[in-house]
Design goal:
The complex is a heterodimer. Chain A is of the alpha+beta class. Chain A folds into two domains: 72 residues, Ubiquitin-like (UB roll), CATH 3.10.20; 138 residues, Alpha-Beta Plaits. In chain A, 24% of the residues lie in helices and 15% in strands. Chain A has six helices and nine strands. Chain A has a five-stranded mixed β-sheet with strand order 2-1-5-3-4, sandwiched between helices. By secondary structure, chain B is an alpha+beta fold. Helices cover 41% and strands 19% of the residues of chain B. Chain B contains 14 helices and 16 strands. In chain B, helix 5 crosses helix 6 and helix 6 runs antiparallel to helix 7. In chain B, 53% of the residues are buried. The chains are: A alpha+beta, B alpha+beta. Chains A and B meet through loops of A and helix 2 of B.
Chain lengths: 232, 472
Amino acid sequence: MESIAVKINGRGITTCPGRTILEVAEANGIRIPTLCHLKGLTDVGACRVCIVEVRGQFLTACTTGVADGMEILTDTEVVRAHRRTIVEMLFAEGNHVCSFCVSNGGCELQDLACEVGMQSVRIPYAYPRHRVDASHPRFLIDRDRCVLCGRCVRACGEIEGARTWDFAERGSGVRVITDLDVNWGQAETCTGCGKCVEVCPTGAIVRKGASNAEMGKNPEVVAQLAERRSHG
Amino acid sequence: MERQIHIEPVTRIEGHGKITVFLDDKGDVRDAQFHVTELRGFEQFCVGRTMWEMPGLTARICGICPVSHILASAKACDAILAVRIPETARLLRRLMSLAQLVQSHALSFFYLSAPDFLLGWDSDPALRNVVGLVAANPDLARKGIRLRAFGQEAIDRLGGKRVHPAWAVPGGVNRALSEEDRAWMIAGLPEARATVQETLTLFKSSFGDPKERGVLGEYASLYMGLVGRDGVWEHYEGVLRIVDAKGHVVCEHDPARYAEIIQEASEPWSYLKFPYYVPKGYPDGMYRVGPLGRVNACDRFDTPLAQAELEEFRGRSGGRSGRVFDYHYARLIEALAALEEMAELLADDRITSPAIRAEAGVNAREGVGVHEAPRGTLIHHYWVDKDGIIEKLNLIVSTGHNNLAMNRAIREIAKAHIHKGKVSEGILNRIEGGIRAYDPCLSCSVHAVGQMPLVLNIVNASGELETTLSRD
């Protein structure tokens, strides 16, 4: 097999082409924070949290393939500052109030904020107006807490094959929808499998009836399913 | 010349408020008003949220009595689910309600109010606080602090945290009580009970004479509180009872239909609304809630020590008491009752059962939860759509019920102590003390906890500032 040499944070690593920077870093015990990335789903580079520096350019580690001679910096002061700003932007464009959130204490966004050292949000909050959709008998979506990572869209399409979830609108108006923008309870394609609930990193898509801090999730389920399905 | 005296902010209470005393040309008191100057807006921003979030969300109304909001909210949600919660959940909720009563009453008595009457109304303001109490009577202060800590720790052990425990949920509670935590509470009860009994003895020996207890004014009013079967003192369930100044039952009402007997009036000078008893109209329908309201409304306590104290209290007061100062007395009796009932609940083996939650969907479009918070009757009323999204809510908070009575109290005290425009710091402290006796929580009532320096502005009729007195 062809092998290539890269450097991550000055450390020489031999790997093979066709792998992403994130995969190589993880295989070598180098931590890069992620949010939209989830093992078992196609990477899309939606959240930009995994940015790394390659010759002065900032690239997403989850969607950039390694190349021979590539020198990658994952943890410089500038990279850390950008990552923190990206996380602050995620907070500023939603309505994330941890104190009464069902996912408080079990939220990937909350963990990420701690990891990147976010002390406050320096960007003005957008305070978007969203309506909670609790029309599904077992689940609900609160778009106030959606970070548009698209995990629900990918899990529904790639693993369940239902394609109930998709994106609508453009720019700052983008939101996830069910079917052709009907209430979730009326979405005929939804099988009620609950994979979107498990993979959603925040308290946006949750089990109905869960109260404050009660929402535990198991996002690893999609990787397990993908693995089992690959074996026929 | 007409003058106004402003006490702003009022200290050693929870939240921000101010008092204005209006003097006439002779310098005598014409009127006095207690203004609540905060605005919170929970009744607006909860709209659109899910009912399952409401206990956790409305808990944030208050950092002192979040448990009361959580319980009232969970009860309103139980009504929407249309379920009867498991017996263990009911017992556990009662237990937490009592732990909350203990810690909150200890806070009000030892931290906020005792410095006034144990150190003296006219004592040095710099030392007239819990730190001064520690210096003057370290043993009592230490016991008071430990009493509050016991209540707080019990809440922590039940709900996983001291403040805002997201534990009571629609349909029950989400965590069973462990045998270890049960044993810890049982072990702590004797010391807590001894502290309350000792403090009651001290209180009665210092203020045995009803005249001394008249220092913060005395007036007749209606009293309201939940009562159980046979008119027994209640804090978590039962019927809403209103009695008159003599203790005669005026009405006993289904709490879910509170709106038939209680309505709210507004005044332009306060953000806090003025609830009143409908048949008597506004403002004659003034009633009082909280420790004195409950103790006056009930016929008896179900526990022996508290019942003996109630009999003595009624004996010393000549029946029901209308004295504002007796809020402190009633608070101590309630703390004793709370510790006694905690012991009974903890002795019941059902308390550690894991059957603690009923699951259900939205089965009613409206739900009312009424609970006795330490400061008085707390009402949460929610309307939801078919999916459980809040469409409207009404919160009537303990401090609100006492709004008319607090205004009456400061007017009485001001009239008794201010003559010919002579105002001293000690007199102002008595006026504040009248408010403190009700242990108001302004943050709750208008749906910030803070101690701020007191500033007194005397403004003349032309609106010019005449004098400013301040203390840090």
